[in-house]
Design a protein that fits this description.
The chain is of the alpha/beta class and about 250 residues long. The chain contains twelve helices and nine strands. The protein has a five-stranded parallel sheet with strand order 2-1-6-5-7, with helices on both faces. It binds adenine.
Length: about 250
């Protein structure tokens, strides 16, 4: 997959592509990337890339021309062009799965009060929000989206890890422990040291149900659970006297 990022702040992008799993994916030839500073396409000595909004209002809007020249320089027409914005469609795991199927993706990083609407109309295929809050830079939102999708590209991480995640999709993850066995007077749960695989699996399922119930009860209400999962959940809810959640299931 090839990823192009159009930005006014290339220095915010490079560290992500030169670290950790992304660095390895690039070394293996699974991902390639370009960062384009679209100020290079702006006119005049000051290379002005933003201007005040028509109709008045606070802040600055990124101008159409430098962006369209930058987009044309990478032949963006007909390609998937993502613009992260708080007014876009909500980003989810299935959205990441859909984007991960593309051979090429182009990201436009906005700043200030956004970009000239005509760029959205002419080039953007996906306006995406990563959540109900406002960030100061589109770069951080682009990196969140790229991080979620590139790991789904074949070969980037092991298929076992992805499979485990997809099995656990309606529930949150169970807690993990590593050495030492005792830390700050807290011990690793005995069951994890027992070597008893069925008991470990049971404990992990209970923890996932508990975690989901406390952090994301909305996910439980919509989840399609197996008979065993339902039984364990009802038992946990009863034990914790979670009558409100119980009444919704
Ligand atoms: N830019 C600023 N805030 C954002 C958000 N919540 N999602 C995507 N892009 C953004």
């Amino acid at each position: 997959m090839h990823i192009t990022i159009l930005t006014l702040f290339p220095e915010m992008i490079h560290p992500f592509f030169t670290s950790s799993i992304m660095k390895r994916a690039i070394r293996k030839g699974l991902i390639s990337y370009d960062v384009i500073d679209f100020r290079d396409f702006a006119d005049g000595v000051h290379k002005k890339a933003d201007d005040i909004p028509y109709g008045g209002g606070a802040g600055m809007v990124i101008m159409a021309e430098p962006l369209s020249k930058a987009l044309d320089s990478v032949n963006a027409a007909g390609k998937r062009v993502v613009f992260p914005t708080p007014s876009g469609k909500l980003f989810t795991q299935s959205y990441a799965e859909d984007l991960a199927k593309e051979e090429e993706l182009i990201f436009i990083c906005g700043h200030y009060e956004g970009i000239d609407e005509r760029i959205s109309e002419l080039y953007v295929t996906d306006e995406i929000s990563i959540g109900d809050y406002v960030l100061s830079s589109g770069e951080t939102a682009s990196i969140v989206i790229i991080d979620a999708l590139y790991r789904l590209v074949d070969g980037v991480i092991s298929s076992e890890s992805l499979e485990e995640e997809s099995f656990s999709s309606p529930l949150l993850e169970y807690p993990q422990y590593t050495r030492p066995e005792r830390y700050c007077n807290k011990s690793v749960p005995d069951v994890l040291l027992s070597g008893h695989h069925r008991h470990i699996a049971q404990w992990r399922l209970d923890k996932r149900l508990e975690k989901t119930m406390h952090s994301r009860p909305d996910m439980l209400i919509n989840a399609s659970l197996s008979m065993d999962e339902r039984k364990r959940l009802l038992h946990i809810l009863d034990k914790e006297d979670q009558r409100w959640t119980l009444s919704k299931l």
